[in-house]
Amino acid sequence: xxxxxxxxxxxxxxxxxxxxxxxxxxxxxxxxxxxxxxxxxxxxxxxxxxxxxxxxxxxxxxxxxxxxxxxxxxxxxxxxxxxxxxxxxxxxxxxxxxxxxxxxxxxxxxxxxxxxxxxxxxxxxxxxxxxxxxxxxxxxxxxxxxxxxxxxxxxxxxxxxxxxxxxxxxxxxxxxxxxxxxxxxxxxxxxxxxxxxxxxxxxxxxxxxxxxxxxxxxxxxxxxxxxxxxxxxxxxxxxxxxxxxxxxxxxxxxxxxxxxxxxxxxxxxxxxxxxxxxxxxxxxxxxxxxxxxxxxxxxxxxxxxxxxxxxxxxxxxxxxxxxxxxxxxxxx
Length: 332
Known about the structure:
This protein is an alpha/beta fold and 332 residues long. It has two domains: 2-123, no CATH class; 151-323, IlvD/EDD C-terminal domain-like (Glucose Oxidase, domain 1), CATH 3.50.30.80. Helices cover 33% and strands 12% of the residues. The chain has helices at residues 2-15, 20-23, 26-39, 44-56, 62-69, 86-91, 94-104, 120-123, 185-193, 220-228, 289-298, 309-317; strands at residues 151-154, 162-166, 174-182, 202-205, 236-239, 251-256, 273-277, 282-285. Strands 1-2-6-5-4-3-7-8 form an eight-stranded mixed beta sheet. Strand 3 (174-182), helix 9 (185-193) and strand 4 (202-205) form a beta-alpha-beta unit. The chain is globular.
């Protein structure tokens, strides 16, 4: 039935000459990010919506996520920080129910066009105003899981362009500890498995960004190993790579500028003091500006991991993660 209805919608869109850019507007992206915040969605949303906005010609920056976060609460009790799964969300009313709650609270633009040819408000017209009383997956607007969104943009001398972290439900929202530095994912994973990482450490996984990876791989293995070792709440981890949607704990990704581009994450030495502060939205290397200047003068960019083929092209063309890691951010 869904496939049949989708085909009908597609035919009508063709008849009406409805194009992606008629739908993907700044208001539409604000709506999408608001739903991501309300549902506790993945950190990858930041990267993807930056890229989508770029492709659609919409003015949108990494700071816009923080603007949305501060006004949209987390309404859904979903894993990894909550207790329910996506199928439970579906059974409780799904995304339409979440959107109707946000719309009634003035947190969605109801006049945005959808692929159906109807506006958001028209599409949600028959959805109940409040979540069902026989479920607790979706919370009412006055009893949210958290009063503000979970995807925060952290800045500081380690990420002047920004970095991304899930900050809700943290048992240790502030960590200051010695840097444990790794230039690839495998060596970081092995250090965890060998018991060389201890509570209070801040792992630094670098040269894993859009250019350095290349392709900004997800650090699922190290973060999973930390949880398996019982260190998920006591060890910080920062990276210019990405995370999966199931990651939790004091982990910060998308650090920009990345190491391969000469970002300050490339200048971190083993044992340096690093602070991750979810309250202050701070990612800071506790080293003086003079010392950083000396290290920068001595730093040389490593050679590319690939010198031919698709991966070499990607590394050469990819923009910063703070701009969506797009491949066509040309200055013409």
